[in-house]
Specification:
49% helix; Helix Hairpins; 12 strands
Length: 364
């Protein structure tokens, strides 16, 4: 509902006009012309005012319009022909449309609609510009991350392939195997980064459907923990506990794997190698809760609100590698399940992520 502010001196005129506008579907409010409009809390889409109000509050009108820029905030003046000269001082600086008494109902409605449509177009344009600005920021962050994340693997691949090309015949088979393993690992790192980008883009641009499968969550998480521990260079300890009555439920296995893998590997990556990560699986009547806790570097409080945005990384990560895509994928995957994710973190102390997903015991 579009909101109209009335600033008319005569109560009867104010009442009649408000009735007309409300019948047409507008939301109307009308403080007294004697009120201090600087303290006015209500936002509005159009102001209809008379010559006395314009003369008294001309500076306020001009300031209010400028404060809304670049969005168009229209002001419509209702006056008699004889009063037009009285308001000439403010007319062209502040007034967007003028209508003279006696008012024709259809003419008033047409002018109001024209002004409101113009305001809506300016709001749409502002939103579009903000969206383009965000896309440009996203593009810049992607280029920065991609150049950083691809540079090292590419250098490794080029260096080792050059070694194999120039002296491959002289190298022992074990050395060749080691070089090929490192080349493969570097290529996989690049592929994983691209996969993350594609997953995120697909989820943002399409209404991705869940591929629900009946999972034994306790066993699923146990195997995932073992897999992550095996892949960890430092063979980190993960304290996996289960609370509540274990049950099978329907989830998208791939998305659930993305959620758990990202959170667990982040907990390992951003905490000291001699500390353990706690992973609690909690069964409730209607929900399943995953809680991952570490005692690592933590996340600065002022940056936590942007944590789930694409290509965002905390300022305290230093040289720890990463793309800033993992948590964006986690958030998207949680949302697709109709769940919630929360973070409790303190810089230099540690972080706890809590994921709550609805427990679905049937596919429907």
């Amino acid at each position: 509902m579009r909101k109209i502010l009335l600033l008319l001196q005569h109560k009867q005129n104010r009442y009649l006009l408000s009735q007309l506008l409300e019948e047409a579907g507008y939301e109307v409010f009308y403080p007294s012309v004697d009120e201090d409009l600087i303290k006015l809390d209500n936002t509005f889409d159009l102001c209809i005012l008379g010559p006395i109000a314009l003369d008294k509050f001309g500076d306020w009108v001009e300031t209010t319009k400028k404060a809304e820029e670049p969005v168009f905030l229209p002001f419509l003046l209702i006056t008699s022909r004889s009063d037009v000269k009285m308001v000439t001082r403010h007319l062209w600086k502040t007034i967007d449309e003028l209508i003279t008494n006696p008012i024709e109902k259809i003419e008033l409605q047409v002018r109001i609609e024209a002004l409101l449509q113009k305001r809506q177009l300016s709001l749409n344009l502002k939103d579009a510009n903000e969206h383009l600005h965000n896309l440009n920021e996203l593009k810049s962050r992607f280029i920065s991350v991609a150049s950083h994340e691809f540079r090292n693997p590419l250098h490794i691949i080029l260096a080792y392939t050059q070694m194999l090309y120039r002296g491959g015949e002289k190298l022992k088979s074990e050395k060749k195997k080691e070089l090929f393993t490192r080349i493969k690992a570097s290529a996989k790192k690049m592929t994983d980064t691209l996969d993350d980008v594609l997953i995120l883009t697909k989820g943002e641009l399409t209404a991705q459907k869940l591929n629900l499968q009946l999972l034994d969550l306790q066993e699923f998480c146990r195997l995932l923990v073992a897999e992550i521990k095996m892949g960890s260079a430092t063979n980190r300890e993960i304290n996996y506990t289960v609370q509540g009555k274990s049950t099978k439920a329907y989830f998208d296995e791939n998305l659930l794997r993305h959620i758990m893998t990202n959170l667990l590997t982040n907990a390992i990556k951003y905490s000291p190698s001699d500390t353990a990560v706690d992973f609690d699986l909690i069964f409730q009547d209607t929900n399943i809760i995953f809680k991952i806790k570490d005692t690592g570097i933590g996340i600065p409080l002022k940056e936590q609100s942007q944590l789930f945005e694409s290509f965002r990384r905390a300022s305290n990560v230093g040289e720890i590698p990463g793309t800033g895509l993992g948590l964006a994928i986690v958030k998207q995957s949680v949302d697709l399940h109709g769940g919630k994710i929360a973070v409790d973190s303190k810089d230099g102390v540690g972080t706890t992520f809590t994921v709550v997903l609805p427990l679905k015991e049937d596919k429907d």
